[in-house]
Design goal:
It is built from 16 helices and 18 strands. The chain is an alpha/beta fold. Bound molecules: N-(iminomethyl)-L-glutamic acid and fe (iii) ion (FE). Fe (iii) ion binds next to loops.
């Protein structure tokens, strides 16, 4: 008998997500690798074995035994698109949208991203850390065990670096994995409104090289949209990012189809996100470029959009789909992947199984962590969530409250 840290036994329903180690597409997105009445042996934060209850019982002795006969157990949610570093919330804009203003109108009138900049520039790293910490702890409560987090509310080299250092500190101090993205191209700062070229040069010649030198971000992201960065500017900035050694992701075709998805495919972006207005050509280009479509239905919900990203067409055209919260102070103050799963079903017609694949394994692929997380398979990190519900189908069906009872990160219960 081998001794291990933990055995989780008699699992009512295990959503294993086992399958090929690459983003799942088409019909694969419906295959959750369900298992019933099995046990998992965990050691050193990793999944050592998964087998029938009797087999595990005979092979291992554990320090902790956890009875999971009442639980659905599944991989922790992976949220591959968040903006959790900010100071002030913007519920005033929420109210303005209710009164009929659009996101773009509010942005053009000086609200939007720009209204988050001043406070972030003035805040100390410690202040930003304390604020973000509370938010990230809440995400963990809701079952998220890995996130991607972006800078983008500073828009100077110094303040973007400050945000990225906060992200690094969150990764070190909280029981969550965080993948870091530089988003200096989230907006054009006010002081460069009449000289966009100078800000783009600053990103190219100072901000991106310095962030790379300090090893503070893995990806560069950009807000490619008619009122922010157009296609030519985006191509230029992202090419430079690649040249410097960053991998790229994009906010593409959220509101208008200006060719953002096509550009993502052309440049081999790892992920193109939003895609509320993405064209057929865009879907094709992403598929050809190996780009994952990361859809953010909670944002369009919060913007009161009439239509959503065409998840069904994407799945039918064999394009891998992931989903994320887009948690941010403006367009989407949502920290719950459970709610995002519900919206993916109700607003984009994804089945519960497809939405769960998109929120776990494909989300892990969207941030290139599928070797480590996103499924419950031998050798993977023991990032697991426990839900006292009848089956996985209950997750989207029951919304507005938290169905996650326990959260395990690298083999340790953190909720
Ligand atoms: O993903 N689209 C760009 N960025 C965010 C909005 C951020 C904000 O409004 O502060 C988003 O929706
Ligand atoms: Fe975003």
């Amino acid at each position: 008998m081998k001794s291990v840290d933990t055995i989780i036994y008699d699992i009512k329903e295990l959503v294993s997500m086992e399958g090929p180690n690459r983003a799942r597409f088409g019909k694969e997105m419906s295959e959750l690798g369900l298992k019933h009445g099995v046990s998992i042996a965990i050691h050193d934060g990793k999944i050592l074995d998964i087998a029938e209850n009797e087999t595990i019982k005979k092979a291992y002795i554990a320090r902790d035994f956890i009875d999971a006969s009442d639980y659905v157990v599944m991989p922790g949610f992976v949220d591959p698109h968040t903006h959790p570093i900010f100071v002030n919330t913007r519920e005033n804009e929420f109210e303005m949208r209710i009164m009929g203003k659009t996101y773009v109108e509010i942005s053009k009138a000086g609200g939007g991203i720009l209204s988050s900049i001043k406070a972030v520039r003035e805040a100390s790293e410690d202040e930003l850390f304390e604020l973000a910490k509370e938010r990230v702890l809440k995400m963990i409560e809701y079952g998220t065990t890995t996130i991607e987090a972006k800078s983008g509310y500073g828009l100077t080299t110094e303040s973007e670096i400050k945000m990225l250092k906060v992200i690094r500190r969150l990764q070190h101090e909280l029981p969550i994995d965080i993948v870091s993205t530089l988003m200096g191209a989230h907006e054009i700062p006010q002081e460069y409104r009449d000289n966009r070229e100078a800000y783009i040069k600053l990103m190219e010649e100072e901000m991106m090289p310095e962030v790379m030198r300090q090893g503070l971000a893995e990806y560069v992201d950009i807000f490619t949209e008619a009122h922010v960065y157009g296609i030519e500017e985006s191509r230029r900035i992202l090419r430079k990012a690649k040249e410097l050694g960053f991998k790229i992701r994009m906010h593409a075709d959220e509101i208008e189809a200006i060719g953002g998805a096509e550009l993502a495919g052309e440049l081999g972006a790892i992920s193109a996100d939003h895609l509320g207005a993405c064209s057929d050509e865009g879907i094709l280009a992403m598929k050809e470029g190996g780009t994952i479509a990361t859809l953010l239905p909670a944002t369009l919900f919060s913007l009161r959009a009439k239509s959503y990203a065409r998840a069904r067409d994407m799945i039918e055209k064999q394009l891998p789909v992931a989903i994320a919260s887009d948690y941010n102070p403006g367009s989407c103050n949502c920290d719950s992947m459970q709610f995002v799963i519900t919206l993916s079903c109700l607003k984009m017609g994804m089945t519960p199984a497809e939405a769960i694949c998109a929120a776990t394994f494909n989300a892990a692929c969207s941030i290139e962590r599928n070797n480590l997380i996103g499924s419950v398979e031998k050798g993977k990190q023991a990032d697991l969530i426990f839900l006292k519900i009848p089956s996985y189908r209950f997750i989207p069906y029951h919304f507005g409250s938290n169905s996650v009872d326990k959260v395990m990160k690298k083999g340790v219960f953190v909720k």
